[in-house]
Specification:
Elements lengths: L2 E5 L7 E7 L6 H8 L6 H12 L3 E7 L4 E6 L8
Antiparallel strand pairs: 1-4, 2-3, 3-4
Length: about 80
């Protein structure tokens, strides 16, 4: 995992959807949420380019209310429970 941000996660949140953004470009707003770097500063452009060039994937976590998160990662594995 390269970066993770979760907000307003509480007991009882219902996950509305998980969106795997593999092959889609990262945005300046993704960088702001993940790293706290405002999109209009030069450092944001540098981080965006570095993360995009690394071929990382992004997982969006959205709930029916409140909670949300982003996970920036190289690869993942799933295992049956």
């Amino acid at each position: 995992m390269d970066a993770l941000t979760l907000a307003e996660i509480k007991y009882g949140n219902i996950v509305f959807d998980l969106v795997l953004r593999s092959g889609l470009p990262l945005t300046a707003f993704d960088i702001e949420e993940l790293f706290g770097i405002k999109p209009d500063v030069p450092q944001a452009t540098d981080v965006l380019k570095a993360k995009s060039d690394a071929g990382l994937q992004l997982l969006e976590i959205n709930s029916s209310y409140g909670a949300h998160g982003l996970v920036l990662f190289q690869s993942m594995e799933t295992h049956p429970s």
